[in-house]
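Schema walk-through. Below, the input block comes first and the output block second. Nothing else is stored per chain. Lengths vary across the set, and this one has 554 residues.
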Amino acid sequence: MFGLYGELLLLHGQDIRLSGMLSGAAYRLRRISDDILSMDKSSLSTLFRPEMIKLIEELKKTETLEALDELIQLTPAGLFEMMRIPGLGGKKLSVLWKTAKIDTIDGLLKACKNNKLSEIPGFGKKTEINIIEAIENYDLKKDRFHYGFIADTAIGLVTAMQKLFKTKWISLCGEIRRQSTTVPGIEIIAALSAVKCKNPALRRHLIIQSSGKDQTHAHTLDEIPVIIYHTTINQFYKELFTRTGNEFHVKKVLGNIKNKTSFSTEDEIYKKAKLPFIIPEMREDVAEWDFKNKIADLISLKDIRGVVHNHTNWSDGVDRLPDFVEACKKKKYEYVVISDHSKNAHYAGGLKEEKVLRQMDAIDDLNKEPGSFRIFKSIECDILVSGELDYDTRLLKKFDMVIISIHQLLKMNEEKATARLIKAIENPYTTILGHMTGRQLLIRPGYPVNFKKVIDACAANKVVIEINANPYRLDMDWSHIPYALKKNVMISINPDAHSIGEIDNIRWGVSAARKGGLTRAMTWNAKSLKEILQWLKEKGSDRNPTRKITTLEM
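--- output ---
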């Protein structure tokens, strides 16, 4: 709310000073985990200026901000969408709106292509080209969001609605309930009439666009689209089921049921279909039908014992090595794998050989501290174009484990990409294959790979495959997990953390892994420290006698 309020003040040419304070407060609010609205004035005064505290107190009393509501009403709907174009903040939008009379993305694109924008003071030819590129990129991904970006907003919205309307008959549905890697927005099923969704208190969370008997369309204050499907209590679970699974999953289940129009639970639906209950994440018509384990056997966040694949300020990470290690200890993990970039990744501060040895010494010193926590010496080693690794055998043998990844020269056909990966996998010092395709969701698709051949190579060489848990990657894709499990290849859910805060990326990796039916038993970093040490010993990673893993350590 504060972020939007600040932008709208600039858009309407009002109170620039307050806009700046709102922007700063919004930045801080996004990083505070405490419930701001439950804090007293004394606690708030340690975090915010008096002007912000006054607004927070207004929210407590009225559940809205009157001045913000007024600005929203004065703002053309198209400008809210224009705010989602990178580089277009309140000031620039104000000029476009008031000077050029542009208030839609289509109008902006047309003006750019007709060279009209460069005629406006402050908007040169370069800006015009950049805006065209930004709009084209936006069009490609405007209807999708990273699940990790909006998950908490969605969960919070449902919780707020349940509390506001004093009912349990409200739930997420659709792709966001299936925890898909990217989603079209927030979908909610609610045993509520459309009239109730016009409750003014809901404006703290939503801007209603249209409302009918069956659906209400809205968006959050962060411009995330929301659809609320209206149903009755009697039809709630059937609607929840049909609006959660994908089309093929729903057809297969309901095809086994005759003459049943309402259900008391989703579990009843599966029982009537003579099927075991299938969790929402797996309702994709991919992994669920061959899943023979119990739901309790699926990997969960609490099962993860170690934090694998992490960067510190030795390369391109934010935090100092000791601080990162201490954060992992506080989160009750048993071990951490430090894997800064190798020398070829010079753009990311990749470590030359001498620097690697110095980092190893620093890790050895930290491992001398009391306690059972273990820091593993690793590297995210670049796979060169030839498929060779970035360091020679003399250095590779000094690591506890080696994570291999491709970062450069990504334009390859399937044959070259697959061969490059397999050659690196066959290196005897390779432990984990990192982000298999190099994809970045909603940004780039990644290089083409023959997944079965790569997974077969990992099976033959006892190499673990990473699910890179960064919500922008989630690579390897969850849909390949069933084949990896069939080949007895273990999966490691790794945060690829570049800061302490990104340790929690593991959550998104777990969500993706569950979709593919990954079990606790086949998750590498669900192993205890003792089990990891034993696994590394069996893998043959104790070749170097200077860092041999002994029975005493286990």
